[in-house]
Write a structure and sequence with these properties.
108 residues; alpha+beta; four-stranded mixed sheet; 4 strands; 36% helix
Amino acid sequence: MLFDLRRDKRDLRSAQDCAEEGGQALLIMPGVYGNWPGGPRCFRNREIVGKLFDQDIERLRTTARSLGVKRIKPCRIGNRGQHVDLCGKPLERAVVQAVAAKESFRHA
């Protein structure tokens, strides 16, 4: 699994671009973005939340499952910006994997 790690909502477009080019991108945002109306309670009052972008829906679901997401609900299916929202332990695992992938790519 190879993530491109983004750290700010301003990186939204570049994360989506990465996914459109065939990759996966993890966008990390302040927790305030987890408090959307009707959003799952598990996202509320988090310090950070994330979006895992991938235009390959099966790979997106497989990755989310491997990260420990219990209810996988892809957003924007079939459209630019297709993603799964992450928080808690699955997000922590995604960040660890993204940083490791970035380090190994840098040293290759």
